[in-house]
Amino acid sequence: MLPILFRVGPITVYSYGFFLVLAYFAATFILWREGKRQGYNEEKLLDFSIISLIASLVGGRIYYVLLNWGFFAADPVNLLFFWDGGFAFHGSLVAVILVGIYFIRRWKWSFFQVADISAIAASAALVLGKIGAFLAGIDFGKVSDLPWAVRFPDLVGARHPVQLYEAAAYVAIFGLLYFFYFKILTSKNMVSGKIFFSFLVLTSLARAVLEFFRADSDLVFSIPVAIIASVVVAGGSLVALYYFGLRNFREDTRTFLTFVFGLNAKILRKLKI
């Protein structure tokens, strides 16, 4: 592990903080470049980036503190030690969406068009954030005897490098979203929102699966909270994808009625389906 990246005189640069800053700049560049290409004001794009960063940090920290309230209530000063880690993904996600809705409506932008661009930017940021978490030795995995298991300071046994698993998953998600984003842009039937909801589905599924490798999960009725939240987000996003034109509702209804009830085309026409 490399929790301290380097020191310059009295200044200490921590790996986690450094990669969070790097993640922010990478996400900001993508948001600025693609937003500018779609005709949005450059200064407001940068303002939106800063607003999203603040919302992400505050929302993620508040959610993390609530999940671990016993620890922070015993020693409240730990609330301030955010550079040691302690941000929950779903808290950041909800905070950014809520703040984004407010400012995008205020600026009269297209919410889903900006959300699509932001989803690509966020997936790139998540990759760098997880690399920083690995170097800092936080969000560690369960004990493992696999050849690539890693030993973390102050922890017993070699463990799954679950942070790198997540980083790899987010690299794949970034590649897929980037590819389909430009494919949708050149489509005659372009519908904004598909990239955003696909991001929510893919990241939620990745988080839910990889949660089984994590050793520091918060539990509710013996079920990791992250899995519950991920299933809810993924399910809602799948419904939204359907609604936004991924499928044809009328054709699907006809297929369902024909398969389940054996209705033929003549009866369906009489029913105006």
Provide structural commentary.
- This protein is mainly alpha-helical and 273 residues long.
- It has one domain.
- It has 10 helices and 6 strands, in the order E-E-H-H-H-H-H-E-E-H-H-E-E-H-H-H.
- The strands form 3 sheets. It has a two-stranded antiparallel ribbon with strand order 1-2. It has a two-stranded antiparallel ribbon with strand order 3-4.
- The longest helix is centred in the N-terminal third of the chain and has 26 residues.
- The radius of gyration is 22 Å and the shape is globular.
- 34% of the residues are buried.
- The mean pLDDT is 85.
Brief overview, please?
This protein is mainly α and 273 residues long. Helix content is 66%, strand content 6%.
Summarize the helix and strand pattern as letters: EEHHHHHEEHHEEHHH
H/I helix tally: 10
Helix content class: 55-70%
Strand content: 5-15%
Spatial shape: globular
Helix/strand class = mainly alpha
Walk across the major sheet and give the strand order. 1-2
Oligomer: single chain
Largest sheet: 2 strands, antiparallel
What's the β-strand tally?
A: 6
First-last Cα distance = 61 Å
Low-confidence stretches: none
User: In the residues, how many domains can be counted?
Assistant: 1
Radius of gyration of CA atoms, rounded to a whole number: 22 Å
Mean pLDDT: 85
